[in-house]
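Sample pair:
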Amino acid sequence: MLELPRALPRELYNSACIEDAVIQAAMQPWAAMECIQLGSGRQLVQMETLNLGKLQVVRETQLASVQKGGVYPSGLLHAILLHPCTQLSFLRAGCRE
């Protein structure tokens, strides 16, 4: 697992514990996305974002089941990597031309 220094400026790196599916969707503004909480639990996800200009990296550690739906704009590369453990980790990378 990549460990980032905690001293990065807030405009480059952000980490948050999300308790609301609407906030989870809003933290990924490059996509028209809707998140709906399916599972029980107060905390939905631990989300980390890294903004490198044209490259955005998002790591989500889901703590409750969430259904996602949405549309990604053309020209955006979107990848999801699943980690085989009880708490699935999602890595999303987007790069615009």
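The longest strand covers residues 45-52.
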